[in-house]
Known about the structure:
The protein is an alpha+beta fold. The chain is built from 11 helices and 12 strands. It is about 55% helix and about 15% strand. A 5-stranded antiparallel beta sheet has the order 2-1-5-4-3, sandwiched between helices.
Amino acid sequence: MKFMGITKRWFLNVASIVIVILIAVSVVLLISLRSYYYGVADMTLDAYSADEITASFSLYGDASSNGFEKAGRDFVENFPHRDTTAVWIINNQGKVILSSSGFDIKGEVEMPDYIEARANRLDSAKWTGRLPSGEKIMASTMIYNYPNGSYGGAVRLMISLDAIDDQLIRICFVIIFACIGLFSLVILSGIMFIRSIVNPVKSIGETAKRIAGGDLEARIDHYPYNDEIGELCATINDMATKLAASDRMKNDFISTISHELRTPLTAIKGWGETLLQVGDSDKQMTERGMGVIISEASRLNDMVEELLDFSRMSSGRMKLKDEKIDILAELDEVVFAFKERSIKEGIEVVYNVPHLPAPAKGDASRLRQVFINILDNALKYTQQGGKIIVFAEMPNPAVLIVTISDTGAGIPPEDLPHVKEKFYKANTTVRGSGIGLAVADEIVKLHNGELDVDSVLGEGTTVRIRIPIEPKERDNSEKEGELNSDEQKEM
């Protein structure tokens, strides 16, 4: 694993923090242990109070040097902790006359604790330092005064700190090894965790590059954990699946629209060539040919307009004319325009709407386009002898619901959720670009409405359009209608 990217950031951030924490904890622990052990030594020295020494030496209560020395010898011989604590007896001249080690202490010996106790007239004083031999000690000097107040001497107790320091050094090494082990464990677990992130991320990046390069069949290998990365892998795989499906629909759309455009162009070209050959010799054929050319040109124009609308919709450039309209009036015109075609194809159209206006602000031509697209689909997918029902209702003064039902082939359940998607065409055997319903849905949304499609395979399809209307305008229209009716009655 290269030391870069996420790994480098993790090491610089997490690993460095772990190192600092381990060092800080180790230092605090060592300082605490040192304070503890030195505190034990200090308490050991404090356990021998000046009062106890005074009581021991007062048994020999004269001021003679022999009495003090005898009392000191007796104190040293009866001292219970001679194995851990050294005892010096110091006379009133500041010389060490007795030692619990049994060796005579000759020459001048540095005793800062003794000097401090004598200089400041203290009962006791302590000092931590090293003896001339290099041994580190903690010493406590306790002064003894005779009952008459004269200075008698002192007792110096000393505890070696070398053993404590050696123990602290051993503990320090143990802590260091423990920290190294703990840090190694953190690094190892961190590397394993980073790999569990970095490797899938690399796989995601490589797969994304392949998808971006046009390989829509690329997928991320199975990720074993149900976490955020697993969710990302599933999302990218789902995205690739949808992109592949969209690409297939796009290709099908291009193939379909090419065929749809070729058909009217072929008819126009064929009849143009025929009319060019016939000339003015056959007036009836000329009229028929011109009718076909005009009809196919209109059909071609409708397809081009539909493609332009789709382009505007995809780029968000579809705009509406904001004007006062009567939605039911626009529906009347569309149904009337399809009446002749329905009769020709042997399909019954049942039209049932309220005899009331449905005023709204919107784009009349766009709403007509919605009704045309839906009725055109209903006629295309309904066989001869079938029925189309156009029904409108106003469940409340602010809403108009237009329902267009047919008894056609219906839509398979697996295709139903996708019929409003661009390029999607459930039945490829029927002519059409497959974008009409997507455009209609967008137009209805721009009018703050909803378009829903329900279908049962083999029984038919129902398209329900819900559009808000303006109740005040409707009330005014109703009043105007009543006034006109009253005027006619008076006339």
